[in-house]
Design a protein that fits this description.
six-stranded mixed sheet; single chain; 27 strands; eight-stranded antiparallel sheet; 24% helix; alpha+beta
């Protein structure tokens, strides 16, 4: 993610090939846990004004009819909140030149009372693209965090950081909205009959488009706009007290068992031993997942927000019969979300146990969704989707006005989101945490069939044999299939690692953003044919640690490594001794190599270097620049996820390297080890 400073700008299309839709996040924290703010979005024309009151989005007007803007709601984060906004840049009307993202506070509250004010922009896949932190907030009661704006055919982001002491009313007036304040009685929200508290339904304020500096002489004066309820702070409300409800997480260490012996199995809400066929597994898995999504709002929202679903009341259904020609079709599930009287509907097609999705079946559901005005079709299987490579090919009828989105979820991602909530971020109450734990136990059971990516594909064995025999041709299409499977495996490894750490882990692509993913995979396939290696890099969000992973099919070894830079200005011997102390509990077979400005430095295993750390000092007075830490383990032979499988060997290699090495480096910054 690129960090920029106040006033700087950056092109979103240059940062991601998937920036047609973005998720904007505003976050802040408070020592007391009570600080809060309301997010608002304004769409501006070329004159820097809203075209009408419909271009102003806040909690009482959370979504645009054309889907261009959607307020996704707050998520508590430790001592503060994160408020997210979905922006579909491809749906923004042509007359809109800028999208201003702001927040405002209540009554006497000031932004200087909040800490860690920050705005981030992520692409459709959730990968953070750019971040901006505000450090100079003071007495302001409203703040413009940043804006998205057009430049020709591309969209750019500008870090603004402009505050207003006059609150939301002053900010709105600057952009062409006239706020007509009305007197308010002495009653508070509850006494005045405001059932929602915080003034969400009381004392509506009329908002009109303010006249431009040069009024149009020909056009008649516009009629007054209909009253629109705006946030409490625009009406001069008194301070509102808020409390952040404590989130419930489950302890990592399980309570001691009361069982007499290991043969006693705990009772489970979702039993699986009786499942005998793939059809039974699909029906059970769909019903279990959808029911938990409907009962645990945080979980249901987490899985559907990226697909364009609003934050609202969710209901889920299974085995729904829908008309389709002479024979009705029965999708595995249906998700419906209601928000402000509007329905968002998605059909769900589920596969378990490694069974592939059927393109003709998905096509039928896309056609049904289009005819019935539904918004999405969601496929769910053990496979992992890649950017630029759809799971199934479907035809879209361009003549139809209504468009249906096709999305994919992996069972590994479902398990990741459940683990993030119950182990790290928390949910609303203990019952919800228990439900998610039961879901996680179900997904992990051998009989559930919901294990994520578990097969490197039919091309794995012949490609590996061709590399060993040096008979694999560089244009063999099976090499591209293996590269695609490798990318799916790495994405799943990131999900599992991130779930354990409570932080997002993402693959790192060392290519120019916007490049064709298929061309990138073709180049990787050619390198695989030439040197027999599959390579990848993983980055852990919030840290500088980048883990390099190399699977050498010729030697049958998996290497994980990371580079640690030497502190500037420190003595070489002091630096070496400090590194050895940091790695006191690292595996003895860890390889340590000294990095120098030119040539190769000393190297050895940690077991040998512990009693003599001076052996790592460069020879001949060469300048010490850092260290490369590597672990090497045997590679699984089979293409699956068995004990001897390749997938498991890579997963375990990354987990062991992070837990045994990277986690001990502490404040030392680590960067990707050279793929060598």
């Amino acid at each position: 993610m690129q960090e920029i400073s106040k006033g700087a700008n950056v092109s979103l299309t240059a940062l991601s090939e998937d920036a047609g839709a973005v998720v904007v996040s505003l976050s802040w924290s408070s020592v007391s846990g009570a600080g809060d703010a309301d997010v608002s979005v304004l769409l501006l024309d070329a004159n820097g004004k809203v075209r009408s009151e419909d271009d102003f989005y806040f909690y009482n007007n959370p979504a645009a009819a054309d889907g261009s803007v959607q307020l996704l709601g707050k998520t508590p984060t430790g001592n503060g909140d994160e408020d997210r906004i979905g922006v579909d840049l491809t749906a923004v009307p042509e007359g809109v030149e800028r999208i201003v993202v702001a927040a405002s506070q209540y009554g006497g509250a000031r932004f200087g009372d909040l800490d860690d004010l920050r705005m981030t922009v992520a692409d459709r896949s959730g990968e953070p693209l750019v971040g901006f932190s505000i450090h100079d907030a003071g007495v302001e009661t409203a703040f413009i965090f940043g804006e998205l704006y057009r430049r020709g055919e591309e969209w750019k982001f500008r870090a603004v950081g402009q505050g207003y002491e006059t609150g939301l009313a002053g900010l709105a007036t600057d952009f062409g909205i006239a706020v007509n304040e009305e007197a308010e009685g002495p009653e508070g929200p509850e006494e005045a009959g405001d059932p929602g508290g915080a003034g969400h339904g009381a004392d509506a304020v009329a908002m009109e488009k303010a006249p431009d500096a040069e009024p149009e002489p020909v056009a008649p004066a516009p009629a007054p706009a209909e009253p629109v309820a705006v946030p409490a702070q625009a009406r001069g409300r008194g301070p509102r007290t808020t409390t952040t409800k404590k989130k419930v997480t489950l302890p990592k260490v399980a309570k001691s068992s009361l069982a007499e012996n290991d043969s006693w199995r705990p009772a489970r809400l979702f039993p699986v031993p009786t499942l005998k066929s793939d059809k039974e597994r699909e029906v059970r898995a769909t019903s279990v997942l959808l029911s938990v999504m409907a009962q645990v709002p945080e979980f249901g929202r987490r899985l559907t927000a990226a697909f364009g679903a609003p934050a609202g009341r969710m209901q889920t259904f299974t085995e729904v019969s829908l008309p389709h020609g002479d024979t009705p079709r029965r999708p595995d599930g249906v998700i419906r979300v209601e928000r402000a009287g509007k329905l968002w509907t998605a059909l769900v097609e589920t596969k378990t146990n490694g069974n592939p999705l059927k393109p003709e079946q998905v096509q039928e559901y896309m056609d049904i969704a289009t005819r019935r005005g539904y918004e999405a079709v969601i496929t769910l299987s053990n496979d992992v989707a890649l950017e630029g490579a759809p799971m199934v090919d479907v035809k879209i009828d361009g003549r139809r006005k209504h468009k249906v989105s096709l999305w994919h979820l992996s069972w590994a991602e479902v398990a990741h989101q459940a683990q993030m909530l119950i182990r790290h971020e928390g949910v609303g109450n203990a019952a919800h945490a228990w439900l998610l734990q039961e879901l996680l136990e179900y997904l992990r059971h051998d009989q559930s069939g919901c294990h994520g990516f578990q097969n490197m594909g039919a091309a794995w064995v012949p490609v590996r044999k061709g590399i060993e025999d040096e008979t694999l041709a560089c244009d063999d299409p099976r090499a591209v299939e293996v590269v695609e499977s490798w990318e799916r495996l790495i994405r799943q490894v990131c999900l599992r690692l991130g779930g354990e750490l409570g932080q997002k882990a993402l693959p790192v692509q060392r290519v120019r953003r916007g490049s064709d993913p298929r061309a990138r995979r073709a180049a990787a396939a050619e390198r695989l044919c030439l040197d027999g290696r599959l390579t990848a890099e993983l980055r852990i969000d919030g840290t500088s640690s980048v883990i390099a992973v190399t699977a050498d099919l010729r030697t049958g070894k998996v290497r994980t490594c990371v580079d640690v830079p030497a502190p500037e200005g420190s003595y070489p011997l002091t630096t070496v001794k400090r590194l050895v102390r940091l790695l006191a509990e690292a595996p003895a077979d860890l390889h340590v190599e000294t990095l120098v400005e030119a040539g190769n430095g000393p190297r050895g295993t940690l077991e040998r270097l512990r009693p003599e750390p001076g052996d790592l000092l460069p020879r001949g007075g060469a300048a010490l620049t850092g260290f490369r830490l590597s672990l090497i383990k045997g590679m699984g032979n089979t293409r699956g996820n068995t004990e001897s499988g390749f997938i498991r060997s890579v997963d375990e290699a990354v987990a062991r390297f992070h837990q045994g090495v990277v986690a001990h480096l502490g404040p030392v910054e680590a960067r990707a080890g050279r793929q060598g």
